[in-house]
Amino acid sequence: MNIAATAGPKAEQEPREHGPITRVRVLDGVIRVALVGCGAFVLIATIAILLFLGRAGVRGIQAVGISQLISGVLWKPEADLFGGLPLIVGTFVSAIGAVIVGAIPAMFAAVWANEFASKALCPLYRRTMEVAAAIPSVVYGWLALVYLVPAMESLAHVIRPNQTTSGEGLAAASLLLGIMIAPTVLLLSLDSLSRVPSALRDASAALGGSPWQTAMRVCLPHSWRGIVIALFFGFARAAGETMAVQMVIGGARKLPGDLFSPTTTISTQIVMDMQNAMPNTTGSNVLFSMSLVLLVVSVVVVLFTRGLTRQGRQGRSRRPA
Amino acid sequence: MTNVITVTARTQSNPKLEPHTTKMRVKDLTVCYSAEKSAIRDVTIEVHDKEVLALIGPSGCGKSTFLRSLNRMNDTIDGVTVTGSVELDGEPIYGPNVDPVLVRRRVGMVFQRSNPFPKSIFENVAYGLRIAGEKDRFTIMSKVERALRQSALWDEVKDRLHDSGLGLSGGQQQRLCIARALAVEPEVLLMDEPASALDPIATAKIEDLVSKLRKIVAIVIVTHNMQQAARVSQRTGFFYMGRLVEVGDTMNLFMRPRERETEDYITGRFG
Ligand SMILES: Nc1ncnc2c1ncn2[C@@H]1O[C@H](COP(=O)(O)OP(=O)(O)O)[C@@H](O)[C@H]1O
Ligand SMILES: [Mg+2]
Questions:
Q1: In this predicted model, what pLDDT tens digit does every residue of B7-35 receive, in sequence order?
Q2: Beta strand B218-222 with B52-56: parallel, antiparallel or unpaired?
Q3: Does the reported pTM lie above 0.95?
């Protein structure tokens, strides 16, 4: 594409004089350069971050060794001990816990809202969830610190009366993350369910399908890809969440004895250690190695959802579900 | 216009009609989508067994609304109120203890636009059987085959039963929807302009099918095509502005309409 071609349609609206046409062309050229500049800036920034992350991360891995980084159980930067297992376990267990206690119920709530709630209630429900999804995570974390952690402490006393606990740990983190990701998962699931053509619902109802049968046999099969994408998206968000988790996880740099013992996660540990980590030291590079783990999670989720979306588009037009 | 309001439906007696049994009896049926305005008002009509009853009338006169009230499909729309009575074999389908889901298993429906599930041809037809709790594979297979034969689709699809129903042509898809409705052995089949989105050849096949099917199921068919009503039906009802103006033997209605509105409509003076 060249500037003249871009300016063509606009130029014709102007009087056919030399002056205005030139001015329009100059303006188009400026805008075009500005837009290309914006696009290039974002791209270059992303590539720079990835390169930097990769370089520092690989150095960290080289310094500590991949096996120690993944399976070592002691994280003590001040003693040059970088066992990353507690961080990895904390991140994955709390995120999987969040999917179980938050995302999966949210999925069924979406089925309820779309298939069973009245036409007046569903939009109201959706608005409420949009608000919930927009609340900053620090607010969730704070509320959890004030209410959820004490509740977990009481619960822990009931479940295992002989041990003391503060209530901080994976149980609190999972519940908090579950509550945090539920609105987003619900909204994404709702979007997917609302794309089920009403003609298919009518067809099922007219054949004697109960609302529940229609939901399970027509609506969910039609929208399962979107719902799985929603669940993965929720998982990725839970795995990356930092601020709120830091307030309830306890910050103990070791594997937890149970769900009510303080532990840590990748992102919260990065926040805690980064003040003390001089650039280009092993301590700093290892933190980037750990964030590579989070990056891999995100990339897997993105590739997976893209694959599902593309498969869905093809399947809709050809293959039977 | 005032004339329309005072008109009530009259059933023309016709000695040539075969003796019939009443399958459905509708009395003073009024359906409102909102409090202010009724979509159909005081409709009284019978559906006979082993007949095709055609419903004609200009767009928006309430034909679809009426049809959907015969299998309680209007219940799926929020805010609809239905007054009057509809009986199926003498039992009120709007009774207090009646499950609309069970009504719909006895009164099937085919829609204006074919709407097969994004499943295989076989699973489309088996759907109604499966949700009714049928588990036996042999029973399902034989009922699917019978329904596909009844809808004149078997020969065209028997070698690709496990291909997607969406891969069929428009006319085939509509016959698949008819097969799907027939598989659960309904007693009445409601068809809402089933051929209006199809080409003439596919339309002819559907019409042919409708004429044959009345031997196994009573059919109520909405059509905006008067020739179609004349070709397939034994009786015809004319709707106008939410009212059933008249209903009677199809030939009589077209040759000797009782009401002025009917005559105006079939001679093409409006609609
Ligand atoms: N779902 C609906 N909600 C509100 N009004 C409706 C709905 N469906 C139909 N109507 C109204 O009811 C009247 C009858 O419509 P319909 O039964 O579809 O007529 P027809 O099938 O004869 O064209 C029309 O005025 C239409 O606008
Ligand atoms: Mg209609």
A1: 344 444 454 555 778 999 999 999 999 88
A2: parallel
A3: no
In chain A, the domains with their CATH numbers are: 66-313 (1.10.3720.10)
Q: How far is the centre of ligand 2, averaged over its atoms, from the C-alpha of B195 (Å)? A: 12
Other beta carbons within 10 angstroms of residue B141's beta carbon come to 13
Question: What value of ipTM does the predicted structure carry?
Answer: 0.89
* Inter-chain CB proximity B117 and A199 less than 8 Å: no
Instruction: Indicate if ligand 1 lies below 6 Å from the C-beta of B132.
Output: no
User: Measuring CA to CA, which residue among A281, A295, A306 is closest to residue A56?
Assistant: A281
Per-residue tokens: A28: 């188009």
Residue A208 with chain B: CB contacts under 8 Å: 101-102, 104-105, 128, 131-132, 184
Identity of the residue in B73, B113, B177 whose CB atom sits nearest the CB atom of A205: B73
- Distance from Cα B40 to the centre of ligand 1, integer Å: 9
Domain B2-266 in CATH 3.40.50.300 = yes
Token reading at B115: 């709407």
For residue A185, is pLDDT > 50?
yes
Probe target for ligand 1 pocket from B40, B65, B68, with the most ligand atoms within 8 Å of CB? B65
If one counts every other C-beta atom within 10 angstroms of the C-beta of residue A46, the result is 10
CB A248 within 8 A of CB A302: no
* Residue B46 β-bridge partners: B25
Please provide the average confidence, as pLDDT, over all residues in chain B: 91
Residues of B in contact with A207 (CB under 8 A): 104-105, 108, 127-128, 131, 180-181, 184
Domain coordinates of chain B in residue numbers? Answer: 2-266
Encode pLDDT of A99-128 as tens digits: 999 999 999 999 999 999 888 899 999 999
Task: Report chain A residues whose CB lies below 8 A from the CB of B167.
Answer: 318
Name the percent of chain B lying above pLDDT 90. Answer: 86
Which residue is closest in CA terms to ligand 1's atom 4?
B33
DSSP E strand stretches across chain B: 22-32, 38-48, 52-56, 81-88, 91-92, 107-110, 188-192, 218-222, 235-240, 243-249
